[in-house]
Amino acid sequence: MYKEICEKYTPEKDNLLYILHDIQDHHPQHYIPEEAVQVVAEYLNIPTNHIYGVLTFYTMYSTKPRGKNIIRLCESPPCYIKGSTNILRKLKMLLGVNTGETTKDGMFTLELCACLGVCGNAPVMMINEDVYGDLTEEKVEEIIDKIRRGNQ
Amino acid sequence: MSLKRIDLLICCGSGCISAGSLKVKERFQEVLADKGISSEVNIIETGCMGPCDYGPVLVIYPEGVFYKSVKPEDVEEIVTEHFLKGRPVQRLMLREEERLVSSQKEVPFYRKQVKVALANCGFINPESMEEYIATGGYEALGTVLTTMNPQQVIDVVKASGLRGRGGGGFPTHIKWQLVHDVESDEKYIICNGDEGDPGAFMDRSVLEGDPHRVIEGMMIGAYAIGATKGFFYIRAEYPLAIKRIRNAIKQAKEAGLMGENIFGSNFSFEAEVRTGAGAFVCGEETALIQSIQGERGNPTPKPPYPAVKGLWNKPTVVNNVETFANIPTIFLRGAEWFASMGTETSKGTKVFALTGDVNNTGLVEVPMGITLRELIFDVGGGMANGHEFKAVQLGGPSGGCLTREHLDVPVDYETLKERGAMMGSGGVIVMNDQKCMVNVAKFFIGFCVDESCGKCSPCRIGLKHMYNILDRITRGEGKEGDLEELQHLGETISRLSLCGLGQTAPNPVLSTIRYFREEYESHIRDHSCQTKVCTDLFHFMIDKNRCIGCSLCARKCPVSCISGSRDEKYTISQTECIKCGNCQDVCPVKAIDRIPGMHPDVLKQLQEKQNISIEE
Amino acid sequence: MKTLADLKKIREKAQEEMKLRDGKVRIKIVVGMGTSGIAMGAREVMKTFLEEISNRNLTDVLVTQTGEKGLSSMEPVVDVIEEGKPKVTYGNMTPEKARRVVVEHIVNGRVVSDYVVATGD
């Protein structure tokens, strides 16, 4: 599977970030496992330590298995000013996890991220590729509920 | 296809619901079913219609008849008389003069705006190239390619006075000229769409709302410098922007606006999209180039500048999205027109992102030189929720805080820099009097600590050290000399860091110390946070006169530090309190207040602890 | 496309198509579909407009999209454009409000002033 993903791109080093994104997006647990790094290293003919250097530099890549839905709460100043800390507390309570952790049922991973660029509607979070704005504690509860129900 | 001939709008605003509109709705459903005409009537619940005094109100279309104070028992009459016989029920009709004419809520948002970069955002369909062309799109490119040589193009940009919109404000024509003058078999042009500054989102908006404009601007630049290949580096947090730019590139290629011999000239050009993966520092041009090459986004020392040794060591121009978005209009309307707006050194318009405690958050484009007062109070509609203005952070985490006394300062590159802030990418974070500036400064430094790439030690270690001092201050453990040390550290980091991120990261601290020194001092000397934000520097007190002794607070306290009785009322044991705020939230008579300053008991405990550690 | 004349032809054709005359399109409903709009629920609003328009078989109404206008605090934002009339911009839209705009404004020509945040260009 990893090999096939690699072959969508020409074997040049500047495709590394793309390949890593692609592998992570296609992995059911949204992460880049060790075997994948080996395959990419061979394909691009670069050392695995280089790949790990890149992997760990960028915050969007994960080397740990993650949940089906990745929640990324914006922690930048405009969201902070508009009360993102309350939203974080609510999310932690609803999901029963700390930041960086995945719920036991594998449904959600809670992460913090730098600015999502939707500051006019702060506080905001992104779940997978969907952005939710003007968050309140009630709204967060509804959103999480809806995803939970949709997944059942 | 539906057979609905009547639309029945029932107001379900809170006023009408409390007057029973839901019961009326149910009754309508029953009666309509009874008469067998359910399929002909479309029942729609609406938000508040305005005339709440007459609730429940409903409107029947196509006639547009307003009914007021409708009760369930009126429903049958409305259905039989109005719906079946076509005779509106006079006694229930709301007369025109009774209707509260809700005043036109016009937004003074647009009045001071002049749209150049944002001209099409929110007007054209961003997925249609034809709509862009209909607004004059690609005409500038066509004219440039068929009538001008590259030097003439650069001269126009020079005459316009355009400066980089991404942060530094470097004159665009100088970047172009440098690369134009270098001999090389290959040159590159890059659009910096790694908008990382918290509080800025104009680049996303332009990429999403008017992608062809950015492409056209880039192609004019490419022609001027002699590049045949361009890259859009867009952060992965902007999936929609990535999608729209990809779509626009595809359309341009299909139409022959990108590719070989564009407009029959000798100019050929290709562009592609590269995405980031979550790293603020990649907005710095040398880090961005590293990232495109598949490396960690570590900045490299300058010189050599990208203009000499950039992408794959070839001469490269990196321009911001908004900078490119200005280019087509400069050529269509002329450099003189563009230069006629703005101030002596800062020409044209600038897009600002208004965020924080201001009424109209959003993007605005105004001529440079507008005052902060106009920006925040006229265009931004003033402070939200009736709070007082306290400060404004300009230029994101690299910028600085300005205060009330700067409200009449014109916004341009130089003036802001003199005052300790910067234009940056145009993020304007407005803060009200409920915000603690020490806490805000700590937050910004925390952001930069997280985002530091770690390559150079002033930024990696110095910022962390600054953070630790600020953290101590906000916990009530600040000491004399802390401010001087922060300033010393800040100046050192600014001087010695490798890239722009480190060089500007101390700005929020330096500017808040400059303008809000007394707030820092009150944190350090009086152990008090006047805004009651820093949890260690305020305390909760139960007002015995207001307390009714219900014990709710004591029961909800997670650490059981509240005790008392109905007669004695309740008290908080201050040394155990964790400041969770539960008691304040649950108190039915609002008898619990936040008092600025550390409670004397807690302070005593803290000082004892400190003395012990000094003796040790 | 090889010349400025080709471009001009496309431009003129596109400008014609964007106009609302010739009776084909009487009203254009433009939903702001930037990230801010979508984050505030513009997709649902767009869907509601499309459903309402098709349920009512309104063949002379066009529902289309645009980027964001900058009015973040009022997203989702929707423009209603009618030939010969000032453009009406509705803010803070929801599916319920969209239904009311269709009934009152699109079908009956009465602007829903409660939701209006701006008029004209």
Automatic annotation (TrEMBL), chain A:
Gene: nuoE
UniProt KW Oxidoreductase keyword: yes
Organism: Candidatus Syntrophosphaera thermopropionivorans
Protein name listed in UniProt: NADH-quinone oxidoreductase subunit NuoE
E.C. no: 1.6.5.11
Class in the EC hierarchy, top level: oxidoreductase
Superkingdom: Bacteria
Record keywords, A-Z: Oxidoreductase
UniProtKB/TrEMBL annotation, chain B:
Domain of life the protein comes from: Bacteria
Full protein name: NADH-quinone oxidoreductase subunit NuoF
UniProtKB/TrEMBL annotation, chain C:
Organism superkingdom: Bacteria
Provenance organism: Candidatus Syntrophosphaera thermopropionivorans
Protein name as annotated: (2Fe-2S) ferredoxin domain-containing protein
